[in-house]
Write a structure and sequence with these properties.
The chain has 20 helices and 20 strands. By secondary structure, the chain is an alpha/beta fold. The chain folds into two domains: 7-379, Glycoside hydrolase, family 3, N-terminal domain (TIM Barrel); 397-570, Glycoside hydrolase family 3 C-terminal domain (Rossmann fold, 3-Layer(aba) Sandwich), CATH 3.40.50.
Length: 595
């Protein structure tokens, strides 16, 4: 098995430059423009004559793209597909992926239905906010190391991680648990460690989303986000983790599709702003690595703009890699035309492509662009890699509240313990490991799952016999009958655990609780039932809900965190997490009861 040599230990910029220059001088303007464009592909199993695979292979081969961003799939499927695309490409491809919780963020493997058999996958760490709760930079480094080892085994060269945004707005609908927390010093410290872990073990790290996506209430996938704070505030908060990462040698940066009036008064998305990406990032903050746009198919950057114009503004702003344009061919042609018209200098394109070619040589792709598929099983999801992930999950567990001294449980083996899982219909894994661990201590454990439904509500027209007199409620709701059934099952319980997997850690818009969940908690309180509220996803879950005797945050819904949460409740593992955020009216930054 060939093991990748860590990037940081074998950098030879002079050799990289010689190869890059030798290739660059053979390329036409069109071929150079194509090197700047990366498209999206699934990492799924794909037969050679499948329509979706044929389409992506055709783009790689005919357009001569510079790289791809790979999304969800099994580890070996990802490796096989990347090898196939590398084979189709005239020049070696660079491959990136969003690996925010480790390689499993995109390579979890999935489930076989209807048998509910887990198919295995890469190693999953908690969301970055869980790492922030540990305050442990060694674990952040280990997360980076495992991410790099596993990602490189699959053929991925560039992790679009870490998230360096400071999540100082609880209503942020996009970042939330993806951030290390609300304190810029904590985000900077943990971010540096994660960058080192990734880059010292063979992969490029990419900080995102510059210059800071934390203090906004708009979803940049849907609209132009806005961070309306002063330049002094940006310098002391938002920019601080990015500068720390740059000083630590960060090699990649991803942009933010947001309006920051303190940096650019034209209300242009930062991605398209020369004032932000060149004047600030390149010149003032001295970042000289690869600058990657966030996805160019997002409304936050496009708005009413054509893809052609967005492409050109991104290049003029100083971006090196144009990620996921809605039409790669249009983006390439627009660059060619802009060079021909004089709007963009060919030297600008050369500088961007040269950086990418140097990185490809640094990875040794000029000599061997393929990965050993047989070796994937030796490097992905191994026990050695799972060790630090399990430890991170354990150290992240945060006991926010325990007014009745419930945790750890001091219950007899035959106690009546009820575990209520609140999860989406397609979330097969929710509660499985958590309940299995609890059942080992309480054989009589009663478990049930409440699934919020999208319901049709009658309007005045319905009463008049109008068949169109119904509207679909925009918010999933736990139906009253389901709440009543849960309350009946919980009657007389020694303790009830309500675990929420709803409201993903990456989407906490408006902090709205799942409809029906407040009614469930109020019903349990009215029956004088002791309740532990467990949050496996939304870290701000407690906001807007009735207070329970105990509240625990596990920071991720995946198997290691479910197991760690159950072990913490049972007293089989210490509890040491500290809040990396403030829960307004509930608990301050740094809170966390130790057990």
């Amino acid at each position: 098995m060939t093991v990748a040599t860590p990037v940081a230990s074998r950098r030879d910029p002079a050799a990289d430059a010689r190869w890059a220059d030798s290739v660059l001088k053979t390329l036409t303007v069109r071929q150079k423009a194509a090197q700047m464009v990366w498209v999206w592909t699934l990492g799924d199993f794909a037969p050679v004559d499948g329509g979706a695979y044929q389409a992506i292979e055709r783009q790689v081969r005919e357009l001569e793209l510079g790289g791809v961003i790979v999304s969800v799939g099994g580890p070996t499927d990802i490796a096989i597909k990347i090898n196939a695309l590398q084979r189709a490409s005239r020049l070696p491809l660079m491959v990136g992926a969003d690996l925010e919780t480790g390689a499993a963020f995109r390579a979890r493997g999935g489930w076989f239905l209807p048998n509910a058999i887990e198919l295995g996958g890469a190693t999953n760490f908690p969301y970055q906010m869980g790492l922030g709760a540990t305050r442990d930079t060694t674990l952040a480094y280990e997360m980076g190391r495992v991410t790099a080892v596993e990602g490189r085994a699959m053929g991925i060269h560039m992790a679009f991680a870490p998230v360096l945004d400071v999540n100082n707005n609880p209503k942020n609908p996009v970042i939330s648990g993806r951030s290390f927390g609300e304190d810029p010093a904590l985000v900077a410290r943990m971010g540096r460690a994660l960058v080192r872990g990734i880059q010292e073990n063979g992969m490029l790290a990419t900080g995102k989303h510059f210059p800071g996506h934390g203090d906004t209430e708009q979803n940049s996938h849907l609209e132009l986000s806005k961070v309306n704070v002063s330049r002094a505030r940006l310098d002391s908060v938002e920019l601080r983790p990015f500068q720390a990462a740059i000083d630590a040698g960060l090699r990649g940066m991803m942009t933010f599709h947001g309006d920051l009036p303190a940096l650019d008064t034209t209300h242009t998305a930062a991605t398209l702003s020369k004032a932000v990406m060149t004047d600030l990032l390149r010149n003032t903050m001295k970042f000289d690595g690869l600058l990657v746009t966030d996805a160019l198919d997002m409304n936050g950057v496009l708005g009413g703009m054509t893809m052609s114009e967005a492409t050109l503004r991104a290049v003029e702003a100083g971006n090196d890699i144009l990620l996921m344009p809605t039409d790669a061919k249009v983006s390439i042609q627009s660059i060619v035309d802009a060079v021909a018209s004089g709007r963009i200098k060919e030297s600008t394109i050369d500088a961007a492509v040269r950086k990418q070619l140097m990185a490809k040589h640094e990875f040794g792709l000029h000599a061997n662009r393929f990965v050993d598929v047989e070796a994937v099983r030796m490097r992905v999801g191994t026990q050695a890699n799972l060790g630090p992930a399990n430890l991170a999950a354990e150290k992240a567990i945060t006991l926010v509240r325990d007014s009745a001294g419930l945790v750890p449980f001091k219950l007899a083996r035959d106690a009546k313990v009820v575990s209520i899982t609140v999860s989406g219909r397609v979330d097969i894994s929710a509660g499985r490991t958590f309940d299995a661990e609890l059942r080992g201590a309480f054989p009589r454990l009663q478990s049930l799952t409440l699934t919020p439904e999208v319901v049709a509500e009658a309007t005045a027209g319905a009463a008049a016999g109008n068949t169109g007199g119904y509207r679909v409620s925009p918010d999933p709701t736990i139906l009253p009958a389901s709440v009543e059934n849960a309350l009946n099952i919980a009657r007389g319980a020694d303790v009830v655990i309500v675990s929420s997997y709803i409201g993903a850690a990456t989407n906490t818009a408006n902090m709205l609780p799942t409809k029906g969940l407040p009614e469930l908690l109020n019903g349990l309180r009215a029956a004088n039932t002791k309740v532990v509220l467990m949050s496996f996803n939304n870290p701000y879950l407690q906001l807007g809900l009735p207070l329970t005797e105990a509240h625990v945050i596990a920071w991720s819904p995946w198997t290691p965190s479910q197991r760690a949460a159950a072990r913490a409740l049972l007293g089989r593992a210490p509890i040491s997490g500290q809040l990396p955020i403030t829960l307004p009216g509930i608990a301050p930054f740094g809170a966390g009861l130790q057990r």
